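dumping this here before i forget
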Amino acid sequence: MSEDSAFDHAFKAIHDAELPWSGEAARDLLTLPEGVEAKVFAYDKAMKRVDMKVRFPPGYVEPRHSHKSWHSIVVLKGRMCVAGKDLRPGDYVFGWDEPHGPYEYPDGCEVFVVFMGEGTAHDWDAEEHRAHETEWDAETAAGREGIAARKATRRG
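structure:
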């Protein structure tokens, strides 16, 4: 959604399938390395709130980062590994504007996120991200392949 969009505060009921996944929306809103996709369900410029689903491919590592907002995350599918915890569907993460992560997604993951604050953009260090050593093992063949491919991509 563009910065000029305004949420009309009207009741909404949206089928997930009504919204396409978008790599462009993820890049524009989240400013993360290539591979992430997002679906924006609601954007409210007045409240500075964005409700979205985000999908991370197998082996993806979200860099240690900060942003000028808080976020609440609920894992919907797959695994999200952060802060020594292996999170599964139904598990929860809260983050604020202090550095947090990295988040690892050894077998891929889909989450629902609510951002509220000055922005959804992630501030992260590319060199630190390239040097990251994956800590969590994949449980699937796709995850093992994803970890190897993502590690190679980070290293250039």
